[in-house]
Design goal:
- By secondary structure, this protein is of the alpha/beta class.
- It has a 9-stranded mixed beta sheet with strand order 4-3-5-6-7-8-9-14-13.
- The radius of gyration is 22 Å and the shape is globular.
- The chain contains 11 helices and 21 strands.
- The structure holds zinc ion (ZN).
- The site of zinc ion (ZN) has 6 residues, from loops.
- Zinc ion binds next to loops.
């Protein structure tokens, strides 16, 4: 960093900490920390992380750093277990989020001529309404479908001539498969799809792009930090540009140290302008790396790579580290195998057993055995342990409207 940018960084961080300490959560967590203690980047890197687990302790409104009358909305991040995390938003936060989201649409080349078909859910979840606000600010026609009811989705998509699909990758795949099955591709007018933050493999990407006939853009975000729309990939498909005028990001190792530039690690975010619920060094648990250098598109915003997994999805079996991104890559290289899979890890008679279910259009018993064998060998070669590979028919593994769970660890 140059002296000037370091000074600005320190000023921003000091202001962010000062504001965060207005919330009961940070008043307690940072009781011994004064904003002026942070004079260097190293000082900043010594600050404790915030994690979803401890945000739950702030339930319901312990994260609020502004008086009640300034809060105009709340969202909640879906806790798979126990207490949810409540994120309060001020009018300014809602407006900042819409501005970031509008930039995402612009980066994807969406204009006010477009018709944006929104399938992520509305309500406490941030997804649907975020896509909605950004598209409205842009001036596009929005079609606020929400998830589910595939018949109605496809009918609206055809009759209203939707040109932009916004969805999770698994729901986009489900729609692509339905469009193919019904043979209605020629009635679909989609040109682009903005796919919400979820790790997804190359194979799934190619399949959705081909079957829907669209350009794909990866959109990043999480409820704790506004929601989706805080970053997006550009036409050059080389990582997602992050709107760092609103937040600062770091990539950390398993032990919590900032990694060397370009190395893989967990994304950690500090909000710089968030009023309702500011967060300092918030652990996203998303695994990625910073993409170094300038992007051909000319955008000055830094990039992170497409997500390769969740730090908490990473499992260790017999000493081998497995994360979904590596399995995606492996399956993408094997013909006659779809992008969908599930891994079950069980502990039987003192041994860890890993079973990998994958989809194939091959029906012949002997041919299936062969492909199971090549999946097992590929897994052994690239990941280091031999799984039990089990072929199932295409469409047999679950597709979901939210995030599809891939790895089930039944050992504990
Ligand atoms: Zn770019």
């Amino acid at each position: 960093m140059t002296d000037e940018s370091l000074n600005r960084f320190i000023q921003n961080i000091q202001a962010a900490i000062k504001h965060a300490k207005r919330s009961p959560y940070y008043a307690k967590k940072f009781a011994d920390i004064e904003p002026t203690d942070i004079k260097t980047q190293e000082d900043f890197q010594k600050l404790p992380f915030s994690d979803k687990a401890d945000l739950r302790e702030a339930y319901p409104l312990g994260l609020a750093a502004v008086p009640n009358e300034r809060i105009v909305r709340i969202h909640s991040s879906s806790g798979t277990t126990g207490t949810p995390v409540i994120i309060p938003y001020t009018r300014q936060d809602v407006s900042d989020w819409a501005i970031m989201f509008k930039r995402c649409y612009e980066m994807a080349g969406v204009t006010k001529e477009d018709r944006v078909h929104i399938t992520p859910g509305y309500g406490l979840w941030t997804a649907g309404i975020g896509f909605q606000l950004g598209a409205e600010l842009l001036g596009a026609m929005t079609i606020p479908m929400g998830p589910g009811n595939t018949d109605k989705q496809l009918r609206m998509m055809m009759d209203l001539e939707s040109t932009v699909l916004t969805a999770t990758s698994s729901y986009a795949l489900l729609l692509a498969e339905e469009i193919e099955r019904r043979g209605i591709k020629e009635h679909i007018h989609l040109k682009k799809a903005l796919i919400g933050s979820e790790r997804w493999g190359e194979k799934m990407r190619r399949r959705i792009a081909a079957e829907l006939g669209v350009e794909l853009y990866d959109i990043y975000g999480l409820t704790e930090i506004y929601g989706p729309g805080i970053g997006i990939s550009c036409a050059h498909e080389c990582g997602m540009h992050m709107w760092t005028d609103y937040f600062y990001f770091e990539i950390i190792s398993k032990t919590g140290e900032v990694v060397a530039p370009g190395e893989i690690g967990e994304l950690v975010i500090t909000t710089l302008r968030k009023e309702g619920a500011p967060l300092i060094r918030y652990r996203t648990h998303d695994l990625t790396r910073e993409v170094l250098g300038e992007c051909e598109c000319g955008s000055p915003y830094p990039r992170i790579a497409t997500l390769i997994g969740r730090s908490d999805d990473m499992v260790k079996v017999k000493g081998a580290v497995i994360y979904p991104g590596r399995v995606d890559e492996l399956l993408a290289g094997i013909r006659q195998v779809s992008s969908e899979y599930q891994i079950m890890i069980d502990h039987v008679n003192g041994r860890d057993i890993l079973t990998l279910f994958f989809e194939t259009p091959i029906a012949d018993e002997t041919d299936r055995k062969h492909i199971e064998l090549s999946v097992e060998m590929g897994f052994k070669n690239s990941i280091g342990i031999t799984p039990r590979a089990k072929a199932v028919a295409v469409g047999e593994l679950p597709r979901s409207e939210k995030k599809t769970a891939r790895i089930f660890d039944n050992r504990y």
